Amino acid sequence: MKRYENVNLPIELIKFLNLPFGFSLLIKGMAGTGKTSLALAILKESLKNDNTPIYISTRVMPNLIKLQYPWLENYIEKIRFIDASNVDLMLPSQDTIKNLKNKLKFQNTPDFFVKIFEFTENIENCTIVIDSWNAVAEAGINNGQFEKNRIEPVLTELVRQHNFKLVFVLEDSNENFMDYLVDGVLILNNSRYYNRRIRTIEIQKIRGIKNIQPEYLYTLNDAKFRYFPPFKFNFPEILIRPEPIPDPNKNYISTGMPDFDILTDGGFEKGSWNLIEIAHGIGEASYSILIPIMVNHLNLERGLVAILPEGISPVIFNKYLEGFVGKERLRKLISTINIGIEKSNLNLTQDNVDYTEEDFKLIDEKIAHYNDEFGWPVLTFLGLGSLQHIYNENDLIRTIAKQIAKSRAGDNITIVQTQENQNLIKNLCHMVSTHWKLDLVNKALVLYGIRPETEINSIVSDASEGYINTRLIPIV
Amino acid sequence: MNDKDLILVVDDEPDTVRLAKRLLEMAGLKVSTAYDGEEALKKIYDESPALVLLDIKLPKIDGYEVCRKIKSDPKYKDTIIVMFTAKVFEKDKKKGAEVGANEYITKPFSGDELVSVIKKLLKEEKP
């Protein structure tokens, strides 16, 4: 579990930080975008290369950093903090953090660089964060003009001749003359996606490194900068039965994912219908959510009726589940129906005659069988894609409405999976108990609740333990 | 002379090696590991495992070549080789049989299946 909690940085940035020569990097963003979190994560990364991390602060009180970024606790002693606020009040108290005694006073911007050079002359390799550059730059304004011509040669010498690794934090996301001077520019954005917060890091420029993806999703959950690479669903090669997660309380069943149990406020309610809408292009990545739900249910010795979406063979589906639940449970507890393949099981719509209700009775019989044999609740997984091509849409909605009304009286649970923008969704979303959307943001797989309305969560799925271990990391 | 209880697990995917090792050790077997074909051959020559669980797609020397070398060496030809692969095509199975593999397991497979196949093969081999 712990591996997910780590701070992490985009791969391009890691490669850039590992360049064997000096560089200058500009981090830009409006207030609250996590510039300091990212800068501190860069300093932490620099420790891997035996660099001395130096944090020059003009705005963030160093003694507050430990409180604001508790994950830094194990590294804070290794970071040298310099107070460049030009304000004596910002001096930290003596008993808080070591290495805070350093105070850098400067007259103007070129003088600032000279002071840094003097301060670091006995340090062989150092990565220096200047947080923020705004205060230093303001000192470089002379008669309303920024002394750009005096800064450029100093900066170039520090980076090229003395291999300094300089990271500038800028409290602004607009274009700036520094954009042209530095080797890399990162822009942190805080925006809205369907009225929910998303954060993206834009790699505007990164000299000497191939930019794989121009923008990534990130979060500041737990005050840690953590980016999300393109989602890749990994299926384990050796499948192991995970320990089932018990029901959070007597009225709910677990989703099989502790984070999803929290997001749903206790799991799936007994008697509920739950719609999972899947955006285009997600494909097998949706298994990262669907497999843990089904596996957990089966491992709790409960029946499952699966009406599979198009394109999924029951043979393959069962083979995949078997390794997670065992042969015997699979044989006893699951009934899979692929309407495209097993047409003989159902009547289907023919000659404008509505068989929908009659066919659903067959599904009901299977559910009743499991209720009789193994008790409640039985989980029904309904791949709506396969049904809406076969039955008349109005008949299907009418039948589902009746099914939903019937379910409320019992403890059985239904998960409906459908592709986004299907006509059925606009009717169905008013009837179901919960409505979730699986989506892609900058190629990261995300999940959010439409009902109940929740924040966006990035999905991280790990197969290294032999089962699908799915975590939801909120984008905050 | 083979070490009758030693299994060599060879795969370039560390998670797969770790899981297989854990499962086999829980089943009371001794396990050694290798991550490429070259390392696998070295371990086979040094440790003489009774059974090698061998992935086909390996760095340096592929699984077929490792199997062919072992099966053509009079000293090691009795080592049981279980090919361990994601490939399901008949031609791959045929190629595995040609180089002398004793058994074939197609990924993904369950931990229970892995242990039962290996125990069965070891039992058949023991005098």
Task: Describe how the helices and strands are arranged.
The complex is a heterodimer of chains A (476) and B (127).
Chain A: H1 2-5, H2 11-17, E1 23-29, H3 35-46, E2 52-57, H4 62-68, E3 80-83, H5 109-119, E4 126-131, H6 133-138, E5 141-142, E6 145-146, H7 148-161, E7 165-170, H8 178-181, E8 184-193, E9 196-206, E10 215-219, E11 226-228, E12 238-239, E13 252-253, H9 258-263, E14 268-269, E15 273-278, H10 287-299, E16 304-307, H11 314-325, H12 327-333, E17 334-337, H13 356-374, E18 379-383, H14 384-388, H15 393-407, E19 413-419, H16 423-428, E20 434-441, E21 444-451, E22 457-462, E23 469-474
Parallel strand pairs in A: 1-7, 1-8, 2-3, 2-4, 4-7, 15-19, 15-20, 16-17, 16-18, 18-19
Antiparallel strand pairs in A: 5-6, 8-9, 9-10, 10-11, 13-14, 20-21, 21-22, 22-23
Helix pairs in contact in A: 5-7, 11-12
Chain B: E1 3-10, H1 14-26, E2 30-34, H2 37-47, E3 49-55, H3 63-71, E4 80-85, H4 90-98, E5 103-106, E6 109-110, H5 111-125
Parallel strand pairs in B: 1-2, 1-3, 3-4, 4-5
Helix pairs in contact in B: 2-3
Verbal overview:
The complex is a heterodimer of chains A (476) and B (127). Chain A is of the alpha/beta class and 476 residues long. Chain A folds into two domains: 2-228, P-loop containing nucleotide triphosphate hydrolases (Rossmann fold); 252-474, P-loop containing nucleotide triphosphate hydrolases (Rossmann fold), CATH 3.40.50. In chain A, 31% of the residues lie in helices and 26% in strands. Chain A is built from 16 helices and 23 strands. Chain A has helices spanning 2-5, 11-17, 35-46, 62-68, 109-119, 133-138, 148-161, 178-181, 258-263, 287-299, 314-325, 327-333, 356-374, 384-388, 393-407, 423-428, and strands at 23-29, 52-57, 80-83, 126-131, 141-142, 145-146, 165-170, 184-193, 196-206, 215-219, 226-228, 238-239, 252-253, 268-269, 273-278, 304-307, 334-337, 379-383, 413-419, 434-441, 444-451, 457-462, 469-474. In chain A, the strands form four sheets. In chain A, strands 3-2-4-7-1-8-9-10-11 form a nine-stranded mixed beta sheet. In chain A, strands 17-16-18-19-15-20-21-22-23 form a nine-stranded mixed beta sheet, sandwiched between helices. In chain A, helix 5 packs parallel to helix 7 and helix 11 (314-325) packs across helix 12 (327-333). Chain A is elongated. Chain B is 45% helix and 25% strand. By secondary structure, chain B is α/β, with parallel strands linked by helices. Chain B has one domain: 3-Layer(aba) Sandwich (Rossmann fold), CATH 3.40.50. Chain B starts with a strand and ends with a helix. Chain B has helices spanning 14-26, 37-47, 63-71, 90-98, 111-125; strands spanning 3-10, 30-34, 49-55, 80-85, 103-106, 109-110. The longest helix of chain B has 15 residues, at 111-125. Chain B has a five-stranded parallel beta sheet, sandwiched between helices. At the A-B interface, strand 12 and helix 11 of A face helix 1, strand 6 and helix 5 of B. Strand 12 of chain A pairs parallel with strand 6 (109-110) of chain B.
